[in-house]
Amino acid sequence: MDAYINGVSYYLPEKVLTNHDLQNIYPNWEVDKVTSRIGVQKRYVASESEFTSDLAIGAVNKLLNDYNIEKSSIDYLIICSQTPDYLLPATACIVQDKVGLPKSCGAVDLNLGCSGYIYGLGFAKGLLFSGQAKNIIFVTSETLTKFIHPEDKSNRALFGDAATATFITINPNKEFFSAKIKSFKYGTDGSGYDKLIIKNSAGHLIKKQSESFLDEEGNFILNDDYLYMNGTEIFNFTAFEIPKLIKDILEVNSVVIDDITMTVLHQANSFMLDFIRKRSGIHSDKMFIDLIDTGNTLSSTIPIALCKLIENNNIKENNKILLSGFGVGLSMAGVIIEN
Amino acid sequence: MEKEIFISNVKQQFMDPEEIVLEMSTEFRQLDSYDSLTGMTIMVMIKDEYGIDIPESDYRASKTIQELYDYVLEKKGK
Protein backbone atom coordinates (compact mmCIF):
# COMPACT_ATOMS: atom_id res chain seq x y z
CA MET A 1 0.00 0.00 0.00
CA ASP A 2 1.10 3.58 -0.66
CA ALA A 3 -0.18 7.02 0.29
CA TYR A 4 -0.33 9.80 -2.30
CA ILE A 5 -0.66 13.56 -2.27
CA ASN A 6 -3.20 14.00 -5.05
CA GLY A 7 -3.63 17.76 -4.98
CA VAL A 8 -2.68 20.88 -3.05
CA SER A 9 -4.39 24.28 -3.03
CA TYR A 10 -3.99 27.42 -0.98
CA TYR A 11 -6.10 30.36 0.08
CA LEU A 12 -5.08 33.83 1.22
CA PRO A 13 -7.12 36.49 3.02
CA GLU A 14 -7.87 39.67 1.03
CA LYS A 15 -6.09 42.19 3.19
CA VAL A 16 -2.44 42.82 2.25
CA LEU A 17 0.34 44.43 4.30
CA THR A 18 3.15 45.62 2.00
CA ASN A 19 6.62 46.85 2.88
CA HIS A 20 5.42 50.29 1.88
CA ASP A 21 2.60 50.02 4.45
CA LEU A 22 5.12 48.99 7.11
CA GLN A 23 7.31 51.97 6.24
CA ASN A 24 4.33 54.27 6.77
CA ILE A 25 3.53 52.65 10.12
CA TYR A 26 7.16 52.74 11.31
CA PRO A 27 8.72 55.78 9.57
CA ASN A 28 12.00 55.50 11.51
CA TRP A 29 12.57 51.83 10.72
CA GLU A 30 14.77 50.62 7.86
CA VAL A 31 12.07 48.41 6.36
CA ASP A 32 13.84 47.73 3.06
CA LYS A 33 17.07 46.71 4.76
CA VAL A 34 15.28 44.22 7.02
CA THR A 35 12.84 42.81 4.48
CA SER A 36 15.49 42.28 1.81
CA ARG A 37 17.34 40.06 4.28
CA ILE A 38 14.27 37.97 5.19
CA GLY A 39 12.96 37.95 1.59
CA VAL A 40 9.44 39.29 2.17
CA GLN A 41 7.74 42.11 0.25
CA LYS A 42 4.15 41.56 1.29
CA ARG A 43 2.09 39.38 3.56
CA TYR A 44 -1.64 38.65 3.79
CA VAL A 45 -3.46 39.45 6.99
CA ALA A 46 -6.80 38.09 8.20
CA SER A 47 -9.36 40.80 8.94
CA GLU A 48 -10.84 41.17 12.42
CA SER A 49 -13.87 39.12 11.46
CA GLU A 50 -11.91 36.46 9.59
CA PHE A 51 -10.79 33.39 11.51
CA THR A 52 -8.72 30.25 10.98
CA SER A 53 -11.85 28.27 10.02
CA ASP A 54 -12.71 30.88 7.35
CA LEU A 55 -9.30 30.55 5.71
CA ALA A 56 -9.52 26.75 6.04
CA ILE A 57 -12.93 26.72 4.32
CA GLY A 58 -11.49 28.84 1.51
CA ALA A 59 -8.63 26.38 1.04
CA VAL A 60 -10.83 23.27 1.16
CA ASN A 61 -13.33 24.69 -1.35
CA LYS A 62 -10.47 25.64 -3.66
CA LEU A 63 -9.02 22.12 -3.42
CA LEU A 64 -12.40 20.49 -4.13
CA ASN A 65 -12.83 22.74 -7.15
CA ASP A 66 -9.23 22.60 -8.48
CA TYR A 67 -9.10 18.81 -8.42
CA ASN A 68 -12.78 17.90 -9.04
CA ILE A 69 -13.09 16.11 -5.72
CA GLU A 70 -16.52 14.90 -4.54
CA LYS A 71 -17.27 16.18 -1.04
CA SER A 72 -19.11 12.96 -0.30
CA SER A 73 -15.92 10.95 -0.83
CA ILE A 74 -14.08 12.63 2.04
CA ASP A 75 -13.95 10.46 5.15
CA TYR A 76 -11.37 12.36 7.25
CA LEU A 77 -10.45 15.99 7.84
CA ILE A 78 -7.29 17.01 9.69
CA ILE A 79 -6.63 20.67 10.48
CA CYS A 80 -3.20 21.82 11.60
CA SER A 81 -3.33 25.14 13.44
CA GLN A 82 -1.94 26.88 16.50
CA THR A 83 -4.38 29.74 16.18
CA PRO A 84 -7.70 27.84 16.23
CA ASP A 85 -11.03 29.68 16.29
CA TYR A 86 -11.59 28.51 19.88
CA LEU A 87 -9.80 26.58 22.57
CA LEU A 88 -12.74 24.23 22.12
CA PRO A 89 -14.34 22.94 19.92
CA ALA A 90 -11.86 21.75 17.30
CA THR A 91 -11.72 23.99 14.24
CA ALA A 92 -12.01 20.82 12.11
CA CYS A 93 -15.58 20.31 13.37
CA ILE A 94 -16.57 23.84 12.32
CA VAL A 95 -15.00 23.36 8.89
CA GLN A 96 -16.63 19.92 8.36
CA ASP A 97 -20.04 21.50 8.77
CA LYS A 98 -19.47 24.73 6.88
CA VAL A 99 -17.87 23.01 3.88
CA GLY A 100 -20.61 20.37 3.89
CA LEU A 101 -18.43 17.31 4.34
CA PRO A 102 -20.31 14.12 5.25
CA LYS A 103 -21.30 13.57 8.90
CA SER A 104 -19.56 10.21 8.64
CA CYS A 105 -16.29 12.12 8.25
CA GLY A 106 -13.70 12.07 11.05
CA ALA A 107 -12.42 15.53 12.01
CA VAL A 108 -9.52 16.42 14.23
CA ASP A 109 -7.15 19.32 14.98
CA LEU A 110 -3.40 18.98 15.09
CA ASN A 111 -1.59 21.56 17.22
CA LEU A 112 1.77 22.25 15.58
CA GLY A 113 3.35 25.15 13.74
CA CYS A 114 6.17 25.11 11.24
CA SER A 115 6.72 21.33 11.39
CA GLY A 116 2.95 20.68 11.18
CA TYR A 117 2.66 19.94 7.47
CA ILE A 118 5.01 16.97 7.73
CA TYR A 119 3.27 15.65 10.86
CA GLY A 120 -0.09 15.96 9.12
CA LEU A 121 1.18 13.95 6.15
CA GLY A 122 2.41 11.37 8.66
CA PHE A 123 -0.98 11.20 10.43
CA ALA A 124 -2.77 10.90 7.08
CA LYS A 125 -0.48 8.11 5.92
CA GLY A 126 -1.08 6.29 9.22
CA LEU A 127 -4.86 6.61 8.87
CA LEU A 128 -4.73 5.28 5.31
CA PHE A 129 -2.36 2.40 6.09
CA SER A 130 -4.41 1.31 9.11
CA GLY A 131 -7.59 1.29 7.01
CA GLN A 132 -9.28 4.03 9.04
CA ALA A 133 -9.73 6.37 6.07
CA LYS A 134 -9.59 6.39 2.28
CA ASN A 135 -9.84 10.03 1.22
CA ILE A 136 -8.32 12.59 3.55
CA ILE A 137 -8.25 16.36 3.37
CA PHE A 138 -5.41 17.80 5.40
CA VAL A 139 -5.58 21.54 6.05
CA THR A 140 -3.03 23.97 7.43
CA SER A 141 -4.52 27.29 8.52
CA GLU A 142 -3.17 30.10 10.66
CA THR A 143 -4.18 33.61 11.62
CA LEU A 144 -1.06 34.34 13.67
CA THR A 145 -1.11 38.04 12.79
CA LYS A 146 -4.00 38.43 15.27
CA PHE A 147 -1.49 37.61 18.02
CA ILE A 148 1.34 39.92 16.98
CA HIS A 149 1.64 43.11 19.04
CA PRO A 150 1.08 46.25 16.91
CA GLU A 151 4.53 47.54 17.93
CA ASP A 152 6.31 44.25 17.15
CA LYS A 153 7.65 45.36 13.79
CA SER A 154 10.02 42.41 13.21
CA ASN A 155 7.32 39.78 13.53
CA ARG A 156 4.82 41.89 11.57
CA ALA A 157 7.34 42.04 8.73
CA LEU A 158 7.96 38.29 8.82
CA PHE A 159 4.64 36.53 9.36
CA GLY A 160 1.56 36.30 7.16
CA ASP A 161 -1.77 34.45 7.32
CA ALA A 162 -2.75 31.67 4.91
CA ALA A 163 -4.43 28.29 4.62
CA THR A 164 -3.74 25.28 2.45
CA ALA A 165 -5.57 22.02 1.72
CA THR A 166 -3.98 18.75 0.59
CA PHE A 167 -5.84 15.71 -0.74
CA ILE A 168 -4.30 12.42 0.39
CA THR A 169 -5.45 8.97 -0.74
CA ILE A 170 -4.17 5.42 -1.23
CA ASN A 171 -4.44 5.55 -5.03
CA PRO A 172 -2.40 7.77 -7.36
CA ASN A 173 -4.29 10.12 -9.63
CA LYS A 174 -2.34 10.40 -12.84
CA GLU A 175 -4.67 13.06 -14.26
CA PHE A 176 -3.23 15.62 -11.88
CA PHE A 177 -0.14 15.92 -9.73
CA SER A 178 0.30 12.80 -7.62
CA ALA A 179 3.21 12.20 -5.26
CA LYS A 180 3.92 9.13 -3.16
CA ILE A 181 4.59 9.92 0.51
CA LYS A 182 7.73 8.01 1.46
CA SER A 183 9.52 7.66 4.83
CA PHE A 184 9.53 10.18 7.67
CA LYS A 185 11.93 11.42 10.32
CA TYR A 186 10.79 13.38 13.36
CA GLY A 187 12.46 15.31 16.16
CA THR A 188 11.51 17.33 19.23
CA ASP A 189 13.31 19.45 21.80
CA GLY A 190 10.62 20.65 24.18
CA SER A 191 13.21 22.34 26.39
CA GLY A 192 12.88 25.22 23.93
CA TYR A 193 9.08 25.44 24.34
CA ASP A 194 9.26 29.07 25.50
CA LYS A 195 11.43 30.31 22.62
CA LEU A 196 8.42 30.77 20.36
CA ILE A 197 5.29 31.19 22.43
CA ILE A 198 2.16 33.15 23.25
CA LYS A 199 2.51 32.99 27.03
CA ASN A 200 -0.75 34.46 28.16
CA SER A 201 -3.03 31.99 26.39
CA ALA A 202 -5.08 28.81 26.84
CA GLY A 203 -4.63 27.29 30.35
CA HIS A 204 -2.18 30.06 31.19
CA LEU A 205 -4.59 32.85 30.30
CA ILE A 206 -4.61 35.60 32.91
CA LYS A 207 -7.38 38.09 32.36
CA LYS A 208 -5.39 41.25 32.73
CA GLN A 209 -3.35 43.23 30.27
CA SER A 210 0.36 42.48 30.29
CA GLU A 211 2.92 45.21 30.18
CA SER A 212 5.23 45.62 27.15
CA PHE A 213 9.00 45.38 27.58
CA LEU A 214 11.12 47.71 25.46
CA ASP A 215 14.87 47.87 24.82
CA GLU A 216 17.07 50.90 25.68
CA GLU A 217 16.10 52.57 22.41
CA GLY A 218 12.40 52.06 23.04
CA ASN A 219 11.97 49.20 20.58
CA PHE A 220 9.34 46.61 21.42
CA ILE A 221 10.75 43.35 22.83
CA LEU A 222 7.84 41.41 24.27
CA ASN A 223 4.39 41.44 25.78
CA ASP A 224 3.09 38.17 27.26
CA ASP A 225 -0.35 38.67 25.67
CA TYR A 226 1.22 38.40 22.23
CA LEU A 227 3.55 36.26 20.17
CA TYR A 228 7.13 36.10 21.40
CA MET A 229 9.96 34.73 19.31
CA ASN A 230 13.57 34.38 20.45
CA GLY A 231 15.05 34.58 16.97
CA THR A 232 18.57 33.69 18.07
CA GLU A 233 17.50 30.47 19.82
CA ILE A 234 15.32 29.41 16.88
CA PHE A 235 18.18 30.19 14.49
CA ASN A 236 20.59 28.12 16.60
CA PHE A 237 18.22 25.16 16.75
CA THR A 238 17.75 25.31 13.01
CA ALA A 239 21.43 25.85 12.16
CA PHE A 240 22.57 22.77 14.06
CA GLU A 241 19.59 20.40 13.91
CA ILE A 242 18.24 20.77 10.38
CA PRO A 243 21.37 19.79 8.42
CA LYS A 244 21.45 16.61 10.59
CA LEU A 245 17.73 16.03 10.01
CA ILE A 246 18.19 16.39 6.24
CA LYS A 247 20.89 13.70 6.37
CA ASP A 248 18.58 11.42 8.38
CA ILE A 249 15.68 11.96 5.95
CA LEU A 250 17.93 10.99 3.04
CA GLU A 251 19.19 7.95 4.92
CA VAL A 252 15.79 6.62 5.98
CA ASN A 253 14.71 6.88 2.33
CA SER A 254 17.94 5.24 1.07
CA VAL A 255 18.84 8.13 -1.23
CA VAL A 256 21.61 10.72 -1.48
CA ILE A 257 21.25 14.46 -1.99
CA ASP A 258 21.99 14.10 -5.73
CA ASP A 259 18.83 11.98 -6.08
CA ILE A 260 16.71 14.88 -4.83
CA THR A 261 15.17 17.20 -7.45
CA MET A 262 14.13 19.90 -5.02
CA THR A 263 14.40 20.62 -1.30
CA VAL A 264 11.39 22.39 0.13
CA LEU A 265 12.05 23.51 3.68
CA HIS A 266 9.68 25.52 5.85
CA GLN A 267 9.98 29.05 4.43
CA ALA A 268 11.04 30.63 7.73
CA ASN A 269 12.94 33.48 6.06
CA SER A 270 15.23 33.58 3.03
CA PHE A 271 18.36 34.33 5.04
CA MET A 272 17.94 31.27 7.27
CA LEU A 273 17.10 29.04 4.29
CA ASP A 274 20.22 30.06 2.42
CA PHE A 275 22.26 29.54 5.58
CA ILE A 276 20.90 25.97 6.03
CA ARG A 277 21.37 25.32 2.32
CA LYS A 278 25.09 26.11 2.54
CA ARG A 279 25.57 24.11 5.75
CA SER A 280 23.80 21.13 4.20
CA GLY A 281 25.81 21.26 0.96
CA ILE A 282 22.73 21.72 -1.23
CA HIS A 283 23.10 23.52 -4.57
CA SER A 284 21.01 26.69 -4.88
CA ASP A 285 19.13 25.17 -7.88
CA LYS A 286 17.85 22.44 -5.59
CA MET A 287 16.58 24.67 -2.79
CA PHE A 288 13.17 26.32 -3.03
CA ILE A 289 13.26 29.82 -1.54
CA ASP A 290 10.22 31.98 -2.19
CA LEU A 291 8.28 33.78 0.52
CA ILE A 292 8.37 37.18 -1.15
CA ASP A 293 4.58 37.46 -1.63
CA THR A 294 3.26 35.66 1.43
CA GLY A 295 5.88 35.83 4.21
CA ASN A 296 6.29 33.09 6.79
CA THR A 297 2.87 31.42 7.01
CA LEU A 298 3.95 28.69 9.52
CA SER A 299 2.60 25.26 8.56
CA SER A 300 1.37 26.61 5.20
CA THR A 301 4.74 27.52 3.69
CA ILE A 302 5.60 23.99 2.46
CA PRO A 303 2.24 23.28 0.77
CA ILE A 304 2.24 26.81 -0.76
CA ALA A 305 5.70 26.01 -2.16
CA LEU A 306 4.35 22.72 -3.55
CA CYS A 307 1.48 24.59 -5.22
CA LYS A 308 3.95 26.97 -6.86
CA LEU A 309 6.13 24.08 -8.07
CA ILE A 310 3.07 22.27 -9.47
CA GLU A 311 1.70 25.44 -11.12
CA ASN A 312 5.02 26.14 -12.80
CA ASN A 313 5.28 22.51 -13.90
CA ASN A 314 8.56 22.13 -12.03
CA ILE A 315 7.78 18.65 -10.76
CA LYS A 316 8.29 15.94 -13.39
CA GLU A 317 7.70 12.22 -13.26
CA ASN A 318 9.89 10.31 -10.78
CA ASN A 319 11.15 13.55 -9.25
CA LYS A 320 11.93 13.26 -5.55
CA ILE A 321 11.23 16.23 -3.32
CA LEU A 322 12.55 16.51 0.22
CA LEU A 323 10.20 18.34 2.59
CA SER A 324 11.14 19.51 6.06
CA GLY A 325 9.48 21.73 8.64
CA PHE A 326 10.97 23.07 11.87
CA GLY A 327 10.34 25.65 14.53
CA VAL A 328 7.87 26.25 17.39
CA GLY A 329 7.89 23.42 19.93
CA LEU A 330 10.76 23.14 19.25
CA SER A 331 9.69 20.59 16.70
CA MET A 332 11.01 19.28 13.41
CA ALA A 333 10.09 16.67 10.83
CA GLY A 334 10.83 15.69 7.27
CA VAL A 335 9.81 13.33 4.50
CA ILE A 336 10.48 12.64 0.84
CA ILE A 337 7.68 12.64 -1.71
CA GLU A 338 8.03 11.19 -5.20
CA ASN A 339 5.95 12.14 -8.21
CA MET B 1 44.05 30.87 18.62
CA GLU B 2 45.13 33.01 15.68
CA LYS B 3 43.80 36.56 15.87
CA GLU B 4 43.92 37.02 12.08
CA ILE B 5 41.85 33.88 11.51
CA PHE B 6 39.38 34.95 14.19
CA ILE B 7 38.91 38.34 12.51
CA SER B 8 38.48 36.66 9.14
CA ASN B 9 35.92 34.21 10.56
CA VAL B 10 33.87 37.09 11.98
CA LYS B 11 34.23 39.06 8.75
CA GLN B 12 32.80 36.22 6.66
CA GLN B 13 29.52 36.49 8.57
CA PHE B 14 28.89 40.00 7.21
CA MET B 15 26.95 40.37 3.97
CA ASP B 16 29.79 42.51 2.53
CA PRO B 17 33.04 40.90 3.82
CA GLU B 18 35.06 42.39 0.95
CA GLU B 19 33.96 45.94 1.72
CA ILE B 20 34.44 46.18 5.46
CA VAL B 21 37.53 46.76 7.55
CA LEU B 22 37.68 44.77 10.77
CA GLU B 23 40.39 45.10 13.37
CA MET B 24 40.64 43.85 16.94
CA SER B 25 39.52 47.25 18.19
CA THR B 26 36.54 47.53 15.82
CA GLU B 27 33.14 47.93 17.48
CA PHE B 28 31.65 45.58 14.94
CA ARG B 29 27.98 46.29 15.70
CA GLN B 30 28.52 49.88 14.60
CA LEU B 31 29.27 48.85 11.01
CA ASP B 32 26.46 49.78 8.60
CA SER B 33 25.97 46.26 7.30
CA TYR B 34 25.73 44.66 10.76
CA ASP B 35 22.28 43.45 11.82
CA SER B 36 20.82 40.88 14.21
CA LEU B 37 21.13 38.14 11.55
CA THR B 38 24.88 38.83 11.30
CA GLY B 39 25.01 38.38 15.08
CA MET B 40 23.24 35.03 14.87
CA THR B 41 25.72 33.70 12.31
CA ILE B 42 28.70 34.98 14.35
CA MET B 43 27.41 32.96 17.33
CA VAL B 44 27.00 29.87 15.13
CA MET B 45 30.52 30.39 13.73
CA ILE B 46 31.95 30.54 17.28
CA LYS B 47 30.28 27.22 18.08
CA ASP B 48 31.40 25.66 14.78
CA GLU B 49 34.98 26.87 14.81
CA TYR B 50 35.82 27.09 18.51
CA GLY B 51 33.29 24.75 20.12
CA ILE B 52 31.97 27.49 22.41
CA ASP B 53 28.24 27.86 23.02
CA ILE B 54 28.02 31.59 23.60
CA PRO B 55 24.87 32.80 25.40
CA GLU B 56 23.23 35.79 23.72
CA SER B 57 23.76 37.98 26.80
CA ASP B 58 27.52 37.28 26.78
CA TYR B 59 27.66 37.91 23.06
CA ARG B 60 25.89 41.23 23.48
CA ALA B 61 28.35 42.25 26.20
CA SER B 62 31.27 42.00 23.76
CA LYS B 63 31.56 45.34 22.03
CA THR B 64 34.81 44.91 20.08
CA ILE B 65 36.35 41.98 18.22
CA GLN B 66 39.03 41.92 20.95
CA GLU B 67 36.39 41.45 23.66
CA LEU B 68 34.75 38.66 21.69
CA TYR B 69 38.15 37.05 21.06
CA ASP B 70 39.06 37.27 24.77
CA TYR B 71 35.72 35.70 25.72
CA VAL B 72 36.26 32.74 23.40
CA LEU B 73 39.89 32.36 24.52
CA GLU B 74 38.88 32.34 28.18
CA LYS B 75 36.10 29.77 27.62
CA LYS B 76 38.41 27.59 25.57
CA GLY B 77 41.00 27.69 28.32
CA LYS B 78 38.57 26.25 30.86
Write a structural description.
In chain A, helix 7 (about 230-250) crosses helix 8 (about 270-280). Chain A has helices at about 20-25, 30-40, 50-65, 90-100, 115-130, 155-160, 230-250, 270-280, 300-310; strands at about 5-10, 15-20, 40-45, 75-80, 105-110, 135-140, 160-170, 180-190, 195-200, 215, 220, 225-230, 260-265, 320-325, 330-339. Chain A has 2 domains: about 5-170, 3-Layer(aba) Sandwich (Peroxisomal Thiolase, Chain A, domain 1); about 180-339, Peroxisomal Thiolase, Chain A, domain 1 (3-Layer(aba) Sandwich). By secondary structure, chain A is α+β, with helices and mostly antiparallel strands. Chain B has about 80 residues and is mainly α. Chain B has 4 helices and no strands. The mean pLDDT of chain B is about 90. The interface of A and B includes residues 231 and 239 of A.
Features:
heterodimer, A: alpha+beta, Peroxisomal Thiolase, Chain A, domain 1, 2 domains, two-stranded antiparallel ribbon, 15 strands, B: mainly alpha, Non-ribosomal Peptide Synthetase Peptidyl Carrier Protein, Chain A, globular
Strand content of chain A: 15-25%
Looking at CATH, the homologous superfamily of the largest domain in chain A is Thiolase/Chalcone synthase
- The quaternary structure here is heterodimer
Global geometry of chain B:
globular
The CATH topology of the largest domain in chain A is what?
Peroxisomal Thiolase, Chain A, domain 1
CATH level 1 class label of chain B: Mainly Alpha
What's the β-strand tally of chain A? Answer: 15
Most extensive interface: pair and counts? A-B, 12 and 11 residues
How would you characterize the largest beta sheet of chain A?
9 strands, mixed
The percent of residues in helical segments of chain A reads 25-40%
Q: What is the CATH topology descriptor of chain B?
A: Non-ribosomal Peptide Synthetase Peptidyl Carrier Protein, Chain A
- Give the strand order of the largest sheet of chain A, numbering strands 1, 2, ... along the chain: 5-4-6-7-1-8-15-14-13
Average of pLDDT of chain A: 95
